[in-house]
Amino acid sequence: MNGQQRGGPLRGVRIVELTKVWAGPYTGKLLAFLGAEVIRVESEKSLDVTRFYGVSDINNAPGFKAVNPQKLSVQIDMKSKAGVELILSLVQKSDVLIENLRPGAVKRLGLGYETVKNAKPDIIYASMGMHGNEGPLSYQTGYAPCFAALSGLSSLVGYEGQPPAGMNVRYADSTFGAAAALAIVAALFHRRHTGEGQYVDVSAVESMTSMIGDSVMDYLLNGTIETCHGNRHPDMAPHGVYPCQDDEWISIATATDSAWCQLAEIMGSPELARDERFSSLPHRKRNEDILDRLLASWTVRHSAAPLANQLQARGVAAIKSVNSMDLVADGHLWNRGFYHEVTESDGSTRTIVGPGWKMSRGASITLGAPRLGEHNAYIFGKVLGLSAEEQQKLADAGISR
Amino acid sequence: MTALHGIRVLELAEGVGGEYCGKLPSDFGAEIIKVERPGCGSPTRGLRPFANGNAGTENSGLFAYLNTNKRSIELDLTGKNGQEALKRALQHVHAVIDDHSADWLAQMGLTAEAVHRDHPALVVCSISNFGLVPPEDRLHAEDLNVFHSSGWGYHTPTGGDASMPPLNSAGRFLPSYEAGIDAALCVVAALFEQTSSGLGQFIEISKQEVLASRIDYVLAQMVAGEMNVGTHRNAFDLTGPAGIFPCKDGFIYIWLSTPAHWKGLRKLLDDPEWMSDFPDNWLERECTPERVESCRQHIIEWLKTQGKHDAAEKAQKLGVTLVAVNNAQDLVESPQYQHRKFFVELSHPVLGSLHYPTVPYRLSATPAKPSKAAPLLGQDNHIDWQDLVTPTRRIRQ
Questions:
Q1: Number of domains, chain B
Q2: How many angstroms away from the CA of A18 is the closest CA of chain B?
Q3: Domain that residue A264 falls in
């Protein structure tokens, strides 16, 4: 149960989460995967929507389980005075607090930075908001696709000449969460060496802008406002996603003239590579509509995966555009342990999605997401040192419900 | 004061993911020494956007963005002298960031085993598309391919038309940036531990896995057998009328999912008649395709007279999650970005004085941001390694 036994670079770091839905919990998950002991403060009165949305059992909610493996759960009613005091005493035993509640909510609860800092002067307090915690627009709220829209990112995704379509609706929360995790670890580093904690204010919208920094640079440098351009790339052609048999698609990116020659040969049309219209990148860019049509009329006669293999064998960057079935069946991801088993609180096993890294001395990731209040006894007893009698009082008063 | 003051990192990486990984700790005050190919420098120097559209070693806006705060030394790592210099340099740094192949790392004496044996205190981070040992059928990939290997591609955009190709991510390098964040996270976490234990780490980042882990909310349910998988393009989607719509001066994004949103919309649109045909809780309980389509058409009609920023302000005050779809110019002009000083001005000998995007976090005690423009190629060639002696460890006893 204690982080010390799992190893990893953040072993011994204790983190308190006052988070909801995806972005904040994702931050906690990454830190737990790095070895921190991450404690979710929850209560029946203000449950995370992912614990009950579309399910009958709050301890068996697939969405919640997806983003909260390897964490602990303690029940504290943060809307009661005694609950707030209890949270403050938990913070005194912790290194980091993460919150992504609505703008101003933590302050109203009596858990704003100044209050928490009074209780624990060297706390690292990470606040996550759509626009960050301050500024003229910080009152505004939104969900993940709003972050992407506001950041400039959505305007770059779409078909040429059409309104922007944006990334998939699921995009943004997890990236925002990862940016917050990085800032927290940098703050931990600073604290380890100076003893100083601090307030970390993370903006979802700015996190998204960081994912298109070079496009923004184009505007700052040349005044160019990029728009969406389908699947085209200024320095590669062909570069796109092409139809295959059975409604499959293949992504092909041709970075060099020689890769293009190989592609033309595999197409059975080596003359295309010598064709004046396609002989060099500028020529291919100029005639890209025809080029894409020619390529698509060839790919559509093939099955995506074998075609990708054939192209790979000749050095052409080509990979099937994988659907959800392909993704969960991806042998490479299984072989690398990206999907791996953890143990649930009832002793059963469950497959989870691991982190995007491997480390020679990483933390072991062995536990599923916690039941509501699964670690009450550990947190109240071991961490806070409350007697059985005191714990019973909390329960009777409804503080730990 | 900066958070990572005293940390020194050698950047051998030459791609966007690796250079972004190096940029992130540099914004926190780490010293990044970038190794570049003699003469031509990092390949990213050859990538657009270029100042005034002119290619040139010092003209790339991409390189300028990715390499703020860094130092540059030219080393020919294909030759013995260069490799000897690298060996010496490794004695003077806390971490190495790389994005070459396993074979290349072996040549440089930087495999996990070699690092463990020869440089036990060193943190080495490798960034690659599919891990250091990619399968035969994934040896060649650009960011477009990686994006489409992760599940994101096939499901972009939301509500995609099955007859149209699935799309690439935003911009050219989103998979690389995403991988750069996780790589930097691991490097800083490893350094956090290394400065007390004295032990290094070998970190391996797979871009595909970083991207796939970003869809954990959906993918974890799928891999646990709790959500259907299949060949449909909308497998990641949510239902409802949410989406991007045109308005008078551009586009807005509106999200509608609760009765409260519907109530707010009614006020925003001044209680139009058509809304009475919808049950108050239809967004949650009776979200039929017909209603979605009808609702969208009415919103589109209303938006014809609305400006994106005005509409957003009015909507937000009524609890409707409507926002502008911004472009780069909107960001520069945004009062929010200005207030938070998201853009910072830096001076570069060739590019001149320019604004740069900075970081999405404000740290009260150790502000993070670039303070120096990207280096000219080889401007720190005469760095005196002997002068640097052993890396500062800054352990607080």
A1: 2
A2: 18
A3: 239-326
